[in-house]
Amino acid sequence: MISGAGLPARIAQAAFLLACAGALQAADAPDWTFARLMAELAQVQTSHARYTEVRRISMLKQPLELSGTLSYSRPGRVEKDQILPFRETLRIDADKITVERDGRIRTVAMRDSPLAAALVETLRAILAGDAVGLGRLYEASVRGPREGWELRLRPREPEVTAIVNEIDVGGSGSRVSRIEIRVQGGDRSVMTIEGP
Fold first, then answer.
1. Is the whole-model pTM more than 0.85?
2. Which residues neighbour 180 within 8 Å (Cβ) at sequence distance 6 or greater?
3. Sign of the dihedral through C-alpha 121, 122, 125, 127
4. Among candidates 84, 106, 82, 88, which has minimal Cα distance to 96?
C-alpha cells in the first residue's frame, strides 16, 4: 500500500533529480560556436525552400515584398527564383551571376562587380558553411543554442563596409531560416526562409 503522506516528498525528490540531470546534461553539452555552426551547415548537400523577402528602402513609400523559391546545391550553386511581384531568376554558379527577367538573360562575371561578388559570396558561404570564406569577408560571432542560433557578420572589406553595415542570419541546426541585411543609410532587407 502506498501512503499518501509521503507522496509530495517523493514528487519533490523526483523533480529535484530531474532538474539535476538536466543541469548535468546542459553542462556536458559543448558550446555552440562559429566553427560548430559552419561544420553543421557544411553537411547540407542540397536544399530547396520557399522564401519571402521584405526590402525597406528609404526612396520607396512602401516596403517592397518579394517571394519565390531558393535552392542550393553543393559546392556552391544557388538559384533564387522570384515569383512575386515580378518573375526573375538569379543563378550563382562558379564565378558567374546570371539574371533572367522578361525573357532577357544577363550574365556577369563576379570579378567585374566586386560588391555584388561580395554579397553573392556571403550568401553562398553561409549556405555552404564556408568558415574561411566568411572569415575573410566578415568578423563573425554566434550566439544562442543550436536550436535557435544567430550569426552576426560585420564586414572587413572597405568596399563592403561602405555599403553594408551588418548581416544577421538566424536558424536552427543546419537550417537557415532568416537573413537580414542592414545597409548604410538605414535601408534593410529581411529574407525569411520556410522549411522544405
1. no
2. 167, 168, 169, 170, 188, 189, 190, 191
3. negative
4. 106
Distance CA 113, CA 171 (A): 29
Residue 166 has pLDDT above 80, yes or no: yes
Angle, helix 34-41 to helix 114-128, in steps of 10 degrees:
90
Give long-range contacts, CB 8 A cutoff, 24+ apart: 69-72.
Answer: 70/193, 71/46, 71/47, 72/44, 72/46, 72/47, 72/48, 72/127, 72/128
Cell 537557415 belongs to which residue? Answer: 176
Report the C-alpha gap between 19 and 44 in whole angstroms.
35
Strands (E) in the chain, as ranges, are: 46-56, 64-73, 77-84, 88-93, 96-101, 104-109, 138-143, 149-155, 164-172, 175-183, 188-193
Contact, 106 vs 89, CB < 8 A?
no
pLDDT digits (tens, 9 = 90+) for 79-113: 999 999 999 999 998 889 999 999 999 999 988 88
DSSP 140: E
Bridge-partner residues for 100, per DSSP?
Answer: 89, 105
Average pLDDT over residues 65-69: 97
Residue 21's pLDDT band (cuts 50, 70, 90): very low
